[in-house]
Amino acid sequence: MRRRAAELGPAVAARGARLEVARLSALLDDPDVTVVEAAAWALGELGRADGPVIERLAAQATGHPDRLAREAAVGALGALGDERGLPAVLAACGDVVSVRRRAVLALAPFAGSEVDAALTRAGEDRDWQVRQAAEDLRAAPDGARPGPSGQ
């Protein structure tokens, strides 16, 4: 039920209903990893977040014991594109392969020398999908990078 509530959050908000983002972000601490994944996805889909939400997502992206939760949190940070989440996305570029793939895609809305360096490193990753994602992002013209929604 908690997972389904998180999954429905963006649809509820799209219909103009009041959505308590704080309650949704509290699900990031749920003991069920599928609830954490759904909450992270929903927060990313909302497209807006305050500092505490970014901090919670960043904490999950870098510290959750389950890779599925870390991957979802990284994806949400990329979807939000808030600079406060960039350090966590960059850190996730060194995680397990599924998280690295998502982290490289999550770099799409960001720019700067740290992002360029992470894409260069990802271009030499042992996983071909990580390399391909990095190549796609580096090849995209400025302002036309593929967004993190394809994660």
Note the main attributes of this structure.
single chain
Ordered list of secondary-structure elements with their pairings:
Layout: H1 2-14, H2 21-26, H3 33-46, H4 51-63, H5 67-80, H6 86-92, H7 97-106, H8 113-122, H9 128-139
Helix pairs in contact: 1-3, 3-5, 4-5, 4-6, 5-6, 5-7, 7-9, 8-9
Extended strand count? 0
The unreliable regions are: 147-151
CATH class designation: Mainly Alpha
CATH homologous superfamily descriptor: Leucine-rich Repeat Variant
Order of helices and strands: HHHHHHHHH
Q: Helix coverage percent of residues?
A: 55-70%
Strand content: under 5%
Proper CATH architecture: Alpha Horseshoe
Q: What is the count of DSSP helices, taking H or I runs of 4+ residues?
A: 9
Number of separate domains: 1
Q: How far is it from the N-terminal to the C-terminal residue, by CA? A: 25 Å
Shape estimate: globular
* Average residue pLDDT: 88
- CATH third-tier fold name: Leucine-rich Repeat Variant
What value does the Rg take, in angstroms?
A: 15 Å
Tell me the major beta sheet. Answer: none
Q: Give the class from helix and strand content and strand pairing.
A: mainly alpha
What's the short version?
The protein has 151 residues and is mostly helical. The chain is built from nine helices and no strands.
